[in-house]
User: Fold FAD:protein FMN transferase from Brevundimonas naejangsanensis.
Amino acid sequence: MTAKSSSAAPPPLRLGAAAERRQDDRVLIPPMAGAPERPPSDLIWSLAGESMGTTWSARLVPPPGAAQDVFQAAIEAELAQVVAVFSPWQADSEISRFNAAPAGTWRLSDELWSLLTAALDLADEVNGAVDPTLGALVDLWGFGPPGARSALLPLPSDAEVEAALAVSGWRRLRLNREAQAAIQIGGMKLDFSGIAKGHAVDRVSARLSAMGATAHLVEIGGELLGRGVKPDAQPWWVEIEAVPGSPAPRTVAALVDLAVATSGDWRRAFVHEQRLYPHTLDGATGRPVDNGLAQVTVFDASAMRADALATALTVLGPFDGPEFAEAMGLAAHFVERTPRGLVERMSPAFAAMMDDEAA
Assistant:
């Protein structure tokens, strides 16, 4: 599932300046404390590439005297480091080494430790609706490094699911905080697919800001974060991709110091006997979610949190998800498949972002 920019960035973001918004658009504007700072120059650079099995793009306002190739190299270096630590598709990555390690206590790098503890804190917050220990289940259902399940194979059996569940679960993972280490129980596989792209977006954004490009829009595989405004004082406008057949109007959002992530049930999925099996797994059942939610979109100051919370709300479902979002003050939008067709729901914080006059 992706979100698409409406501000002339490279694919997969879509062209369209703020003045080109249609009259019937739904426009989302976040609350802002004061006017944003003026960008460091009047230029906008567009950079792009590939990483983490997907594409990335960045639009940034460079500081005076900056070199474009230096910024390109800096972004690529950040993403290469994310892959080196967190990619289970890289046999020599740190996460792959932990996943293949025998039972024992293994010291983790600062980067892996930091994201793992943040993920476990989130798991505690949502009672396991997002869980960084489901790698064995991800592989079993054909969404991990071993590849997709053959169409000739039956679905995983109850025994296979139970075996994968036995080495999964955020409550089973023990940490030795003094040693900055995680205890491998034997066969447990960490998986950050519901959080890694958002984390990478945050890292790239922080790197750009440190280099003086304090106004920018970063996108990796559909997860986006905007900082500051463009030289014309317009925000970074992005279009939220709609579920096919959605009753919602075209929605554009101003990403001013804000991130957005969307989880959908049709982008990474397989069909078996006319039933859709999406890539989002419920750690409580060990199976793909099957609760009717077609899409969840979340706005947050952190792309990592937005990414993780979109997954968590999808797992929580069409009733508990909106209830949790309202209780936590999250700006979230839900699209549910029902016998009446697609139905949308939105949290109060999301509704408060809607600007009827701007639309």
